[in-house]
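Quick illustration, no need to memorize.
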Amino acid sequence: MAYIAKIGPSILSSDLSRLGSECVRMMGCGADYLHLDVMDGHFVPNITFGHPMVECLRKTIGLEPFFDMHMMVSRPEQWVKPMAAAGANQYTFHLEATTNPGNLIKEIKESGMKVGLAIKPGTTVEELAPWANQIDMALVMTVEPGFGGQKFLEDMMPKVSWLRSQFPSLDIEVDGGVGPDTIHKCAEAGANMIVSGSAVIGSDDPRSVIALLRTVVSEAIQKRSLDR
């Protein structure tokens, strides 16, 4: 069983005027990676930031933090090279945003980044399945992408369970409404990469929240390996 628990704070929930120091703070609190939400105002209604900010963050906080770019953009092909040059480590694109996932996966790998493939709540997990052996991570959205602070969609958990049963060593990420109240459901379903925004960053004690999330996921992974 190759996968382990990893917790990635969603930095869009932080004080954007102090983004560099917030990233450093999250890593200091035990984050395994940083989840960066890129929105273009087309694929989703909101606009956030692009590769120039990623480049500035990389220069400011150094090479160590793993940047998982969640590309909520309508033309993901356009930003592969700029994001790679800016210092992104993983390029997670939406299946709904491209007509040629295979070609895009190849481009991302050739640029030196890991590949994440995301699906919205309305997209079936079977549509992602043909690409699962070519990617590093599958992202099952547990809210509609584009807005923070939404309620966790528990009915997405069967997608996670199905992916875990079919692709036992795949990294499976959940994103949206995930925190101490919902982590058990995610962990039991088989998610191992946990994106959490306000529940971590808005907490008075982010270190404890990150530790709690990791413990719950690690215990579920251990139980799954014993049950096999």
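Residues 206-227 form the longest helix (22 residues).
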